[in-house]
Amino acid sequence: MVHRKIAPFVEQHKHALLFAGGIATAVIGAKILTSQTTKDLATKGMAGVISAKKDAEETFQDMKENAEDIVYDASAQNGQEIYVEKKE
Predict the structure, then answer these.
(1) The pTM is what?
(2) Is 75 exposed, middle or buried (0-12, 13-18, 19+ CB in 10 A)?
(3) Direct distance between the N- and C-terminal alpha carbons of the chain, in angstroms, rounded to an integer
(4) What is the pLDDT of residues 24-62, one digit of tens each?
């Protein structure tokens, strides 16, 4: 029953309702983006990304050192040098 009363109103004023909905979305979005909770979450997220990057760089450095050790050990066992190109 309520649907029958609302449907003609919505059909008649759909552009005004879309405009009002857009404004409401913008206001609510602005409140969310400027809230302290959002800032705290963004800061924690960024700190996590930076921490993960540091860990990945350390792991990569360890892998590189291990590979260099393996190459050195292999060359010592074979009595010959093994050349590895360094990319910088």
Answers:
(1) 0.53
(2) middle
(3) 73
(4) 999 999 999 899 999 999 999 999 999 999 999 999 999
